[in-house]
Design brief:
- The protein is about 75% helix and about 0% strand.
- It has a single domain, classed as Rhopdopsin 7-helix transmembrane proteins (Up-down Bundle), CATH 1.20.1070.
- Helix 5 crosses helix 6, helix 6 runs antiparallel to helix 7 and helix 7 packs antiparallel against helix 9.
- The chain starts with a helix and ends in a 7-residue tail after the last helix.
- The chain has nine helices and no strands.
- The protein has about 220 residues and is an all-alpha fold.
Length: about 220
């Protein structure tokens, strides 16, 4: 019996299997590319959290029911937090603790907006895929606005740090835009959307961390 794209997408080989492999590769790249310091430690912490995310939200999760859903939501916020911590630290030249505090606030904007919309139009969000699509769409809008209003190039302390932060935000924008396209296809009844979704999932579950390590300029590593 042939396995369709949805079967591959929902399998343990994809999630958490692929995510585990990418996290392991990310850990190796981070250690090899970055000297000891806050950025290296932060990316290794993000890698560990991402691997934990893959385990607890994937096909091998020991969680069930409402607990599994709440944990999944929490990891989505933590996933976005990775980006905002780096943006606040390097684009706006914040200390790590201040950058993290501000990043927490920024990472909560999308889930709050999503919750308001879902409660306002419950009949339109009776499908989990529609809930995903709402979150993804809101993030694309938020990231686009922040790129102009909060993270313009002039706010960086050096051109290298500016381009680094911009490239990280651009990476996430592409990732979320791909998720939007995939979920629109899935909701339209096109199973290939599940297959295409493997790409942004890979970007999220490991390639972003590798990208952040490889793209880091010398100014970001002390």
């Amino acid at each position: 019996m042939s396995v369709g794209w949805r079967g591959i997408h929902d399998s343990a080989w994809h999630h958490p299997g692929l995510a585990f492999a990418l996290c392991a590769l990310a850990a190796v790249v981070v250690v090899q590319r970055l000297p000891e310091g806050p950025l290296r430690r932060s990316l290794l912490l993000f890698t560990a959290l991402t691997a934990l995310d893959a385990w607890l939200t994937g096909a091998l999760t020991p969680l069930h029911g409402g607990l599994a859903q709440n944990v999944s939501i929490g990891f989505v916020v933590l996933g976005d937090l990775r980006l905002f911590v780096l943006l606040e630290r390097f684009r706006n030249d914040r200390r790590w603790k201040v950058a993290t505090a501000l990043a927490v606030i920024l990472s909560l904007l999308v889930p709050i907006a999503q919750a308001i919309v879902i409660r306002s139009f419950p009949a339109d969000f009776n499908d989990l895929r529609r809930i995903y699509l709402a979150y993804e769409s809101f993030f694309v809008v938020l990231a686009s606005v922040l790129l102009v209003l909060r993270y313009p190039s002039r706010s960086a302390t050096s051109p290298a740090l500016g381009w680094y932060a911009t490239s990280l935000l651009g990476f996430f924008l592409v990732q979320y835009a791909l998720w939007v396209v995939c979920d629109v296809l899935i909701l339209s009844g096109i199973e290939l959307g599940y297959g295409l979704r493997l790409l942004p999932n890979a970007l999220y579950y490991g390639l972003f961390l590798i990208f952040a390590a490889v793209r880091a300029p010398l100014e970001a590593t002390p």
